Amino acid sequence: MRGNRFTEAVWALFRVVVGLLFALHGASTVFGVFGGNRGSGHAAPVGGWPGWYAGVIELVCGLLVLVGLLTVPAAILASGSMAYAYFTVHQPHGLLPLENGGDAPVLFCWAFLAIAVVGAGPWSVDGMRRPRAEATTLETADV
Hints:
- The chain is mostly helical.
- Helix content is 68%, strand content 0%.
């Protein structure tokens, strides 16, 4: 990854924070913690469409992105689920995210898209699993 001396550390922190926040949203939906599903104090009904499935995607993909394991597929699924949430839940109530309360889904969607395109970075499980020779080749190819 090209940039200055802080690029890798800041990218890792960005990925960890986005993954953690997404996983917390999922935990609130699936387990009813942190205020519960939509602030109800309860979990979403198991198997309920689309809320419970969205919560499972948020929890699992958030944790995968947080540790940097299978990051690209997890980020693609997370980004798509947030695009779906925006267009089916928020967009019918107004055109712009400020009008319809869709700021969080839009930000998550674009953050996960960026993570899917850039990848987890070297400070991740994916980065540790990649052979060192391949990592060096990729880094020099950017120059």
